[in-house]
Amino acid sequence: MKTRDLLRLVLENLNRLRFRAAFSAVGVVIGTTAVVVLIALGMGLYESSMASVSASVGSMNEITVLPGATIRALAGSSGFGAGNEGVIHLAFLEEMRRRPDVLAVTPRVSLTSGALTMRQLLLSANPVGVDPASIRGMGWTVQKGALTLGRGSALLGSKTLESFVDPRRHETVAFPAEDLIGQSLTLTVTRITDEGKEQTRTVRLRIAGVLTERGGQDDYAFFLPLSEAESLNQWVSGRQINRAREGYEQASIVPRSSEESLAIETQLLTRGFYAISAGTYIKAFNMIFLMIQAVLGGVGGIALLVAGVGIANTLTMAIYERTREIGLMKALGASNRAVMFIFLGEAGAIGFLGGLGGVLLGLLLSGAANILYGLYLQSQGAASAPGAATSITAVPLWLPIAAVLFATVVGVLSGLYPAQRAARLEPVVALKYE
User: Fold this and answer.
1) How far is residue 199 from each of residues 113, 117, 123, 157, measured CA to CA in Å?
2) CA distances from 335 to 35, 151, 233, 346, 348 (A)
3) Which one, of 281, 210, 275, 250, lies nearest residue 58 by Cα?
4) What residues does 198 pair with on adjacent strands?
């Protein structure tokens, strides 16, 4: 028999068994819908988590390094690191700068106290001292102004434009970036003397530039030269800080590539430092969500396999009803292969049509879930929060295609036993069957 004749027989048989085939296809529709919706839900959770990570940890390659003593204090362990290992002292920073796989290194010094004002407005920002020679290697760019950090100058993170507060009216004031370039900020630090008296020191800083949004805490920071931050901290503490011996509380290292980032992190951890980057978070999230996707996809796959049992049952019953027809076909010269093709074609068609219907229903339910989620966010006023997800499901292009193919394969596999059974029928016995 020609392939065209076999396909025609498949369509005619499905039309003749349309009600029974439709009921079998409904099971495939439900299973495929479960696969699409559950995997889309897992993908939505993954994308929203990735957005939150990117918004909170910043640059992908930048490694944040903390001394081992800090981690020991937090973990309450005395076995982390030993001797001078895990101390961010000057020799360590110089060693990192000399590495060919490192682009930039800078310690980060936060002010122990400080208030920022501009024209009677308070600026809610984190003052951080960084090495001016390293900022270009850090990958920073400016949306307005110049990427320079000299004595008496400062750089603003992108989110600080919305962080000015008018204390008289108790309201937030936002500025365009271009309006702040060249403006003067007053940084006031306070200390308590041994006699219990309060002393203040004021430093005027000119805004040299506003940084492009990078994600993470740097967008909310106010950067000044490392030497000035060090000087202010020493004045507040009333003592000289020996960085060669005591080290810094934090440093940033920018490798040349994300592949080198993992190797550097591993080396730092073995030396007693705490080192982490956005890539570390993302690797952890990938592992977690790979397991979540496997579980969710497995639940939907089980529903689809149950539907496959229904297809097998439908075709097995069809063999009993069409035994004489099969015998007549074989008596007229139809091969075992042709008979198998007919039954496998019917099973595959049921799986394909059910998969197609399940994909359409799954896309509809996913879209409806996103609309309801969006309405919920609007009612809670959370839609505009940094890193907030605007949808709860995400359907990648491969998912509908893979779901239809999977449903078709399940249908074909479900038809293997009935097809083999039909192909093994002897023509003489089949023709005598009542």
Assistant:
1) 12, 18, 21, 29
2) 37, 91, 91, 17, 20
3) 281
4) 192
Q: Are 71 and 195 in contact (CB under 8 A)?
A: no
Beta-carbon-side half-sphere exposure of residue 357 (alpha carbons within 13 Å): 17
Q: Which two tokens stand for residue 232?
A: 């202010």
Extents of the domains making up the chain = 3-56+283-432, 63-256
Report how far residue 423's alpha carbon sits from residue 329's, in angstroms, rounded to the nearest whole number: 11
pLDDT of residue 55: 58
Mean pLDDT of the chain: 80
Nearest CA to 107 out of 150, 64, 61, 155 is that of 64
Q: Residue 418 corresponds to which tokens in the numbers above?
A: 């009935």
Please name which of 53, 63, 157 lies closest in space to residue 102, comparing C-alpha atoms: 63
Contact present, 249 and 110 (Cβ < 8 Å): yes
82 torsion bin: left (phi>0), alpha (psi -120 to 50), beta (else):
beta
In this structure, the chain runs to a length of: 434
Rg (the chain; Cα; Å) = 34
Give the CA angle between residues 163, 169, 170 to the nearest 5°.
50
Q: Are 156 and 222 in contact (CB under 8 A)?
A: yes
Number of C-alpha atoms within 13 angstroms, CB side, residue 127? 25
> 248: buried, middle or exposed (CB in 10 Å: 19+, 13-18, 0-12)?
buried
Mean pLDDT by 10 residues, the chain (434 residues): 62 68 82 88 80 61 82 52 68 92 92 82 89 89 91 91 86 87 90 84 92 84 92 87 87 86 87 82 76 79 78 70 65 73 81 90 91 81 54 87 89 81 64 50
Would you tell me how many other CB atoms lie within 10 Å of the CB of residue 105?
24
- 120 Rama sector, left if φ>0, alpha if ψ -120 to 50, beta otherwise: left
List all residues 6 or more positions away from 136 whose beta carbon is below 8 Å from its beta carbon.
Answer: 104, 147
Q: What is the DSSP letter of 212?
A: P
Greatest CA span in the chain, whole angstroms? 115
Q: Which two structure tokens, joined as six digits, stand for 249?
A: 């509380």
Closest C-alpha to 258, from 13, 62, 76: 62
Q: Give the burial class of 171: count Cβ atoms within 10 A of its Cβ; 0-12 exposed, 13-18 middle, 19 or more buried.
A: exposed
pLDDT in tens, 138-161: 888 899 999 999 889 999 999 998
